[in-house]
Specification:
By secondary structure, the protein is mostly helical. The model is unreliable at 5-11 and 250-318 (pLDDT under 50). It is 45% helix and 7% strand. Strand 1 (2-5) and strand 2 form a beta hairpin.
């Protein structure tokens, strides 16, 4: 992937086309151009048979330039960077900022392509593509363009695995406001691809990500919790908070707790608004063990006695 930054400071991740696919696209374009050139030449020879040799030579040169040079420039301009060969290979020519090319970009690429592709049989273009980090030839460098892949092979869609049931709701008191988006992205990418990693490498990577995440939240990883399970539980807690915020839970006026949201039987701790929390009280990283402890500025009531048959089975016990 190649990260391009647009004029609006938006980062685009594009797949630059490599030499094999670009060479195949150029070969298809040359075959089509030569076929058109041969057909048009035969027609012009029959139509200009009465002209002298100098006129026929001038017409042949003009036809060569028009078909083999002007044709690709015109096609790339009208199709915004998609010639016949590039459409067959799933490629497109774009600007350095990811936008569609215009006539001046296609003109520079076409004129330099005569030297590095037609006159040198593609040797200069191959060397330049191999040297360039993004596979660009000289025409792309001078025109400020890049050939990217439009069609990406379809793979299995990665999903974040759920945490173990005994970790559900355990990290509801974590302060996740200091965790940057880059760390969240790294954690999600690890969770979606940890099945493809070597077990030892995956374990060390999970430990490093868990340590970074614990440093940002200010609470250490609980002993006995595997780092991958810890990451999955924290990511699930963040998703649950975002879902409650997106669907309006926790944003109503007033200072009381908002009713629990989620599927039936799932435990969701009450969310208190900032107005009900004292300014000098910081939320606890984990629910305290004693029944009379203070969580988020409110006293937690001890669990009520009752038979287990009266309560739905949720897979885990709420913290005392």
């Amino acid at each position: 992937m190649s990260e391009l930054v647009t004029g609006e400071a938006v980062a685009l991740e594009l797949r630059p086309a490599r030499l094999p696919s670009r060479a195949l696209a150029v070969l298809l374009d040359l075959v089509a151009a030569v076929a058109v050139y041969v057909v048009v030449t035969i027609a012009l020879v029959a139509a200009t048979a009465s002209l002298d040799e100098a006129a026929q030579t001038a017409i042949s040169i003009a036809l060569f330039v028009l078909v083999l040079v002007g044709g690709p420039i015109l096609v790339e301009t009208l199709s915004h960077g998609r010639s016949l060969g590039k459409m067959a290979c799933g490629l497109r020519v774009v600007r350095d900022d990811g936008g569609p090319i215009r006539f001046r970009h296609a003109l520079v690429r076409g004129l330099i392509g005569v030297i590095e592709i037609l006159m040198t049989l593609g040797v200069v273009a191959c060397i330049a593509s191999l040297v360039s980090a993004r596979g660009r030839r000289l025409g792309d460098v001078f025109a400020g363009t890049l050939v990217v892949r439009e069609r990406v092979p379809v793979g299995q869609t990665g999903f974040v695995p759920p945490p173990p049931p005994w970790l559900a709701g355990r990290f509801s008191g974590l302060d996740l406001s200091a965790v940057p988006d880059g760390l969240w992205l790294a954690v999600r990418q690890y969770l979606t691809r940890m099945g493809q990693l070597d077990p030892q490498v995956g374990w060390s990577m999970a430990e490093r990500l868990a340590a970074d995440l614990a440093g940002r939240t200010g609470a250490p990883v609980p002993p006995g919790v595997p780092p991958a399970a810890y990451l999955a539980a924290v990511v699930q807690e963040r998703q649950a908070r975002e879902a409650r915020r997106a669907f309006g839970h926790g944003s109503a006026g007033g200072g009381g707790p908002v009713g629990p949201a989620g599927p039936a039987g799932a435990y969701v701790p009450p969310v208190y608004l900032a107005a009900a929390v004292a300014p000098d009280v910081r939320p606890a990283a984990y629910p305290p063990a004693d029944p009379g402890a203070v969580v988020r500025g409110e006293r937690v009531a001890p669990p009520q006695e009752g038979s287990s048959a009266d309560r739905p089975s949720t897979g885990f016990a709420p913290p005392a």
